[in-house]
Amino acid sequence: MADNDHFQDSKLLSRPLDPSSTRANALRRAINRKHGLQLKDIHDLHSYSISDYTFWLDLWEFLGIVSSVPPTKVIEPGQKPYLPRWFPGTRLNYAENLLSRSDDGVAIVQARETGSVQNCSWRQLRLRVTEIAGGLRAAGVKIGDRVAGIISNSIDSVALALAVAAVGAIFSCTAPDMGSSGILERYRQIQPVVIFAETEVMYAGKVVGLVPKVTEVANDLRKNGLRGVVLFPSVLSGKVPHHELTDCVSIEDFIKKGKDIPMVFEQLPFNHPLYILYSSGTSGPPKCIVHSAGGVLVQTMKDLALGFNMNRDQTYFQYTTTGWMMWPYMISGLALGVTIVAYDGSPFYPDLREFLKFVDKRGVSVLGISPRFLTEVQGRGIHPLDLAPFDCLRAVFSTGAVLTPPMFEFAQQAFGPNVHIASGSGGTDICCGFVGAILSEPVYAGEIQGKSLGMAVEIFDPEGKNIEHTGQPGELVCTRPHPSLPVCFWNDKDGEKFRKAYFDMYPGIWRQGDFIVRNPKTKGLMILGRSDGVLNPSGVRFGSGEIYAVLERSFSNIFEDTLCIGQRRPQKDKDERVLLFVKMRNGLKLTNEMKAQVKEAIRTGLSIRHVPAHIFEVADIPVTVNNKKIEIAVKQIVSGTALKPSGTVANPESLELYRKYFDLEGVLAAESGNAKPKL
Length: 679
Ligand SMILES: CC(=O)CC(=O)O
Fold this sequence. Notes:
By secondary structure, this protein is of the alpha/beta class. It folds into two domains: 89-507, 3-Layer(aba) Sandwich (Rossmann fold); 532-672, ANL, C-terminal domain (GMP Synthetase, Chain A, domain 3), CATH 3.30.300.30. It has a seven-stranded mixed sheet. Helix 3 crosses helix 10 (293-307), helix 7 runs parallel beside helix 8 (211-221) and helix 17 packs across helix 18. The chain is globular and about 75 Å long. It binds acetoacetic acid. Acetoacetic acid binds next to strand 22. Acetoacetic acid (AAE) binds at residues 325-326, 399-400, 424-428, 433. Residues 1-20 are annotated as: Disordered. One of its GO terms (biological process) is lipid metabolic process. Residues 43-97 form the Acetyl-coenzyme A synthetase N-terminal domain. This is Acetoacetyl-CoA synthetase.
């Protein structure tokens, strides 16, 4: 493949924000003044940020992190060479930093698909956090205890996360749609002392009763140290429904018990655990990724303030459940005085148009969505600007999967030329971005604008050689430590699971598992897919994202979703073959003519070697609970590996649809009517 083939779509979409008006520029100038440097622009600032660890102290000061013992030192060696200790000796509290205001302005807008909207002021938020923290203390929750949630996105769930942090406990949560086995796979490992749970929620117009699930989970976890359950009232009736759970109270009774306990923000080391998030492994139990309070605070504030230029006049609406890392990511906006939107429900119910009008009406400045959301807007023929002016909207941030060049272009047209379309990658493992938005840099279709400050991102070939200047794709690696490296995996005593997950392929260097390429001309970055899903027919290595880009450009009106994987074949002389699975829109049927058109579009858009060997219609595409397509599990299934899906798969039954493709020849024979009768 020629060097720049990945960038044939590199179309300039929008002009940058004046660099002198950005917060990143203010940081650059502050660093120049403080250290007598002459950093000229964001690129110089990035070079400084990955060459001198003092950058993190500069950032600390710039962000105004609140601490009772301020840092005197940035970094010192830790137990492992790749896991240093950050800001040793410092004492701070995450929740104290997030409760950055106490006025009557709006801190959280809570919205539900039912149309109900409730504002929570900074003053009310502080009070609610104090009440829940009092309840936690009255219940005997101590520093380092685990507190877990099965909760929807709401004012109370945000207040709960802050209250847990205030008392120094460790918070972990799943969305209410996770099945009981998925919840237990997680919480049996971390052994929470208290669980906060919803009792009745709504999703896509359906009332979902949670009492049976919560009862099953609680009864199981009692064997593992669970002391009690706190129930949130039904989002419909406002009351706790009938249940037969023992050792449980309603949230209102819970806080009554701690009524007179004053708020104390425990002052804890920078590395003190804040959240436990979970890897989205689709087979086997998820890994419990422990993140530090200081690391999450500094990194998420950095991304929001310097990547998105957020400030206290703005509103950040990240569409997310409480189970995805984008939830804590959004919550950190509070530390910048930003108003956040806690939305619960489907964006497509009762109507995607209503959701878009809500975004405009609430004056959202940064909207976080996924490529899937944009595909739906496009597939349903919706033109957002016909619905509302989106006057306040400054950036649309798509994450969770690759945002292909056609989707960048669509998003730009959809929201207008003044909106910055951004994508990024990082995720659960670091609770921030490795690469992401730089609002002062031009946007090219399909390209992430740059490496995040402080992140020493490079692109490696399999031998560990940096190939980022060649225009060839490779592994996204990070060659220096940064503050939100996970503290550890829970229960991984010798740290071996942790080392294997990130530092195995290139000893001492973090491998993220993304297949990435850099445009030598624009310096923009493009994620081509997950690196373990790289397609490799006839020795050409490419990412599924390249195929999705072609499909989204020309076929989004007929395909609701697609999945492209490589099938390994047992015969040594046979190459991997590329299979494309498509889920049709609105009852359409996949015809031979459509298949031929798809193959032709891929051949002309990419190359003959990218053309899938076969295209099949399937009833469903497997996705994780965070709505990410599951390629690896399907690749394993069609290559003959027996696989037991984990609770991370949102629609595990869909995986069954792919088993028959292990006998691909049999499927093809059946399709052509030549199936041999089974004896
Ligand atoms: C920032 C991200 O990378 C989010 C994700 O994809 O999980």
